[in-house]
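TICKET #2291
ISSUE: user wants both folds in one file
ATTACHMENT 1:
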Amino acid sequence: MVKRTQAEAAASGRPEDERLGFGKSFTYGIQHVLTMYGGIIAPPLIIGGVAGVSTAEIGLLVASCLFIGGLATILQSFGVPFFGSRLPLVQGTSFAGVATMTAIVADGGLPAVFGAVIASALLGLLITPVFSRLVKYFPPVVTGTVITVIGLSLMPVAAQWAMGNNTKAPEFGSVSNIGLAAMTLAIVLLLSKVAVPAISRLSILLSIVVGTVLAAALGKADFTHVWDGPIFAVPTPFGFGAPTFDVAAIVSMFIVVLVTLTETTADILAVGEIVGTRVGKRRIGDGLRADMASSAIAPIFNGFMQSAFAQNVGLVAITGIRSRFVVTAGGVILLVLGMLPVLGRVVAAIPYPVLGGAGLVLFGTVAASGIKTLSKVDYNGNMNLVIVAASVGLGMVPIAAPEFYHHFPAWVGTIFHSGISSAALMAVALNLLFNHLKPAKAGSDPSVFATATRVIDYSDLKAFSRLKNGDRIVDGKIVDAEGKPVQVRDEDGRPVSYRIGSEPEEH
């Protein structure tokens, strides 16, 4: 095939089809791998830790996630008929399902997790043709809430890691463990401040390396078992046993599938805009099918739910390298790394306090991304505030009180024991109730949440600068087009009693 230059690719309307050559493609591909490496190894470390498997088995999980992430990335970026957006999108183990999978693994072990992922991903594959019609039910008020809860739900994991992870160990929660986590956290923050973009973007990964070196110097890192096992091997299919299928676990994971499909849709649209190429429904459908197909195949090779990595979308924007073949090269690199179980054992030997210090920032970044999404939501004259409040509140219940659902039927606990599932169900239900069902008739008593979001300063009132079309005065008071009262506050934000034509009285 003739190599397409940048000008030819741009002229064709598909700048992502530019070919940079073998050397440049793999060089930039390594940069993509380094950008997402910390994110792709974290889920198997979390889930393996909760499952209580050995260091060698955690190494297998890490290698498997790298392997299937490589396959998924190649499928998404290079593509085959009906599968793959053919855009520079890097795939990897989704953070969205971590909290749910840890809840499932606590009850049914890893086979139950693999079974739930396979079944829910196949269901997701079936609904991809109609998912574009469902996207309207997952607006920013829903996705932002869910992403925020994902990050917050993982904070106890970071704290557990910082303390040493093993509650039975004599040094669990010791000053030395927490001190090592604090040093790692400090390194993350310092490297993030470095003016060199390549260093600041890799601050999480570099902090783990430096923290591990410090731990080794302090005698808190054990790499003696790294060479116990093969150096090169393809992940063994069903290495943890045949998958088991539990209905409640599948329902719980299907909620994660809906969130994953929404996130991947957003990433496809975002990278299409960054690259400057046309993205239609068919391309989105192909991308979502690649997402779900790779997720359904992942458990066969001991992997988990797959999704597009948003940080790599940002890397495309930062570097300006729009070729999808660069990302395909990155997928090949991930595939090779996944066939090096010795590398997985090295990662599994990293001291948990080091991971805990880095995890505080890594998981906090997820929560911050959700908060950023929520900042774009319109809260004026609607019930979006109560949607966020109730959903986040319900999502935090299993985090604050893990035994909250212990007296309920097992299926209830499986679904709601995960903060992400609880928050997602509540957010979707309330969004349907408040934003899609027919609103109450004008003149009915407004909710305190709706009225509390609209306030006018008294100084602005005199200039009429914040009045809206339909606002009017009734009995000396301002009401909106539906007859709902509009609050008035003074310059210091204090509510005032007023009648038009008289001076306000402060409360």
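ATTACHMENT 2:
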Amino acid sequence: MGPLLLVLLLALILFGAGFAVKLLWWVAVAVLVIWLLGFLVRMTGADGGRGRWYRW
């Protein structure tokens, strides 16, 4: 009974980790797309040059 519970717990942990890693990949892709879109839509400044699209 003990080894069976250990195997089931290990499977549950690995499934949870796999789901979390996949979710983090989708978040990373979304951030990358937003970051790239920021360079495409940034406004021109008063001097005619391109300004920064963020305020850091």
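RESOLUTION: both attachments delivered.
EXTRA DETAIL ON ATTACHMENT 2: The chain has a mean pLDDT of 78.
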